[in-house]
Write a structure and sequence with these properties.
There is one protein chain. By secondary structure, this protein is of the alpha+beta class. It has two domains: about 35 residues; about 130 residues, 60s Ribosomal Protein L30, Chain: A. The protein is built from three helices and nine strands. Strands 3, 4, 5, 6, 7, 8 and 9 form a seven-stranded mixed beta sheet that branches. Strands 1-2 form a two-stranded antiparallel ribbon. A hairpin with a 2-residue loop joins β1 and β2. α2 crosses α3.
Length: about 180
Amino acid sequence: MRSSRSAPPLEESVTERRRALKQLVAIPAVAMLAGCERSNSALTTPTASTRRYVNPPEHQPNAVYTDVIRVGQMVFVTAQVSTDEHGDLIHKGDIEGQVRQCWHNVEISMRAVGGQLTDIVQCTTHVTKFEYIDKVAEVRTQIFPVNPPTTTRPVVVNAVTGMGEDFLVSIGAIAMIS
């Protein structure tokens, strides 16, 4: 005996099936990127053992935060400033030099977890003066001549990372290593 409810229109049925299929494909894909693993057809969330917390030796030792964390294929790089391996400011008063040093420090962090700058998919930049924005964009274009990562428009703040007026810029990044 057939149900008294009528079948949904064909368009609605196809749309619902497509939506369900997208969810079946999207959920495992997002979970995999986040470092989740399959276990008996169930997804497990990333654990401390699937995460790598790294403070590269080329950066000043630090107990307050981690420079770079890798979770599965995802990489999160703490905003870098223009410092050398001892944590001392370099390129004082030189926005272009500081931007290049920030990217150099981001690259050190990426290499520490098996990545490279071209793996970056998103970057966040903070500057202390509006007039620095063009120089930040110019240097980023030189570093990423093709396929640049997405970026927030540089945000102007009073003092980058609370480290004092001599720090003109900070750059953080999110990457996916394939």
